[in-house]
TrEMBL record:
GO molecular function: proline-tRNA ligase activity
Function, as annotated: Catalyzes the attachment of proline to tRNA(Pro) in a two-step reaction: proline is first activated by ATP to form Pro-AMP and then transferred to the acceptor end of tRNA(Pro). As ProRS can inadvertently accommodate and process non-cognate amino acids such as alanine and cysteine, to avoid such errors it has two additional distinct editing activities against alanine. One activity is designated as 'pretransfer' editing and involves the tRNA(Pro)-independent hydrolysis of activated Ala-AMP.
InterPro entries: aa-tRNA-synt_IIb (IPR002314), aa-tRNA-synth_II (IPR006195), aa-tRNA-synth_II/BPL/LPL (IPR045864), Anticodon-bd (IPR004154), Anticodon-bd_dom_sf (IPR036621), Pro-tRNA-ligase_IIa (IPR002316), Pro-tRNA-synth_IIa_bac-type (IPR004500), Pro-tRNA-Synthase_IIa_type1 (IPR023717)
Source species of the chain: Variovorax ginsengisoli
UniProt entry tagged with the keyword Cytoplasm: yes
Swiss-Prot/TrEMBL catalytic activity: tRNA(Pro) + L-proline + ATP = L-prolyl-tRNA(Pro) + AMP + diphosphate
Domain Aminoacyl-transfer RNA synthetases class-II family profile as annotated: residue spans: 33-477
Cellular location(s): Cytoplasm
Pfam families per record: HGTP_anticodon (PF03129), tRNA-synt_2b (PF00587), tRNA_edit (PF04073)
Name of the molecule in the record: Proline--tRNA ligase
Amino acid sequence: MKASRFFISTLKEAPADAEVASHRLMMRAGMIKKLGTGIYTYMPMGLRVIRKVEAIVREEMNRAGAVELAMPVVQPAEIWQEAGRFQGYGPELLRIKDRHDRDFVIQPTSEEVVTDIARQEIRSYKQLPKNFYQIQTKFRDERRPRFGLMRGREFIMKDAYSFDRDLDGAKASYKIMSDAYRRAFDRFGLRYRAVAADSGAIGGDVSQEFQVIAATGEDAIVYCPDSDYAANMEKAEALAPAGPRPAAADALTKTPTPGKATCEDVAALLGVPLATTVKSLVLATEELDDAGNVRKVTVWLLLLRGDHDMNEIKVSKVPGLDQGFRFATVTEIEDHFGCKPGYLGPLNPRQPVKIVADREVAVMADWICGANEVDFHLTGVNWGRDLPEPDAVADLRNVVAGDASPDGRGLLAIERGIEVGHVFVLGTKYSKPMNATFLDEAGKPQFLEMGCYGIGITRLPAAAIEQNNDERGIIWPDAIAPFTVVVCPIGMDRSAEVKTAAEALYEQLLAAGVDVLLDDRGERPGAMFADWELIGVPHRVVISDRGLKEGQLEYQHRRDTAATKVPAAGIADFIAGRL
Ligand code: ATP
Ligand code: MG
Ligand code: MG
Ligand code: MG
């Protein structure tokens, strides 16, 4: 591809609503363009990344024996009513009407349609197992669409559905899929963990999420560095003993003693259910002297109601605390207490939390409150009792770093992740209500045992960027970069030698099957380099008159701090050795 023909549109500034690196950088690099809330055009540069993700997923699905089809995006409500999801799905399901006033939905996934296909097509056990997949547009009317492609309303998902004759078969299909996911995720070149997730009615070890590790991830994942144990927080909590953590339990019985209580304890003392006291947060009050200098800073740790967005926490106004308080950063808290505050994991350590003041609550004076770590708490904390919002998400943890791993092989650690894939044994959840059966050897009808398997195709590039970026821009792993190599000639319009060498190298790399772009726009070097560093092409070759005189070109990987001189004659081999 030549840059003059391609479409490149970079921005100096990201729009104000872009809160996380991937959203900012995808907007600045001209990869996506916003049309409406959670609705984006995949611009040419972004679409190249998406297509590469799709290609890897498609190869691994085919290799695992899944067969591709494409189901309708707009689906009649009737089959959704059969499975009970037309009502049951809730407000995330986009329901529309046609000119005859008939109900339709836009697929958020496609269990109903694929089950309908299976009940018509699969008659005999001899046709099993089968696995159908599609890579298709989905729509979910998310409560909080945000972070660009990370949580869009319209997005692309790979969804696969397996059909087996019994639960053992379904588990075998599930295993094949989760192995295929591992291969795909290895190929993406990302750091990820496959973690146990809640498998609902089926129970057992039959649901896993593929989480790309990133500090900005919305999910907390719990793992044991000394064993294979890894689970998402919900799953880990479901296994953990209920109630206050044992280390602090004795503080509950009497007046709290300094050095013993945690936030959960205080919640229990007040008789507030844990689910209503979702987050703790640190505030700092400042006392100023007459000259306006800070005389004293007091840090307050409060129990708050959160709505799962750790960067924006709703805090009820606590009378007496609303004068002159400011919000401490995690770093300040760490400095102050010499420990990490247990609930502040996902925050950017240098950034104060954005607080949305809510309503007044009664103050309860002078309690002891903890940092969810034994021996680190405050006395004299004043804080309020509050009611939950209906949609508040409980994220109060009963599992913290340093707890014993359930397999007894070590201590738990916690990190943040982005859910990019999810594999799941469904059982007969859809086949039963939709009466999808096959005939077994005895000619008896049996319900099909199903599994479903999703990958967020458009979420994946965003997750990749959260994991791989710096102050200059994106750093793509080779496998999903919009271009693998960019050739940057300096002064191509002035120098025939540079032009010839650049075009020759471009043709040579193309012939070798390298996904190369020649930047023939005639930009000045500074602007040209800034563009490619922002866009994040991993390999760059610079061709200049000065270099050519010495028979040299300059190669630089996006992660390198300096360029390497490479003899012009050997550049193609040099690059091949790096891909
Ligand atoms: P989340 O917990 O992030 O809301 P989910 O559990 O609802 O995701 P699934 O139903 O498991 O999502 O769908 C399979 C995959 O589709 C997810 O693992 C994720 O990668 C992707 N996905 C889900 N919702 C979105 C969205 N709003 N935007 C982009 N990708 C999404
Ligand atoms: Mg969801
Ligand atoms: Mg999820
Ligand atoms: Mg999921």
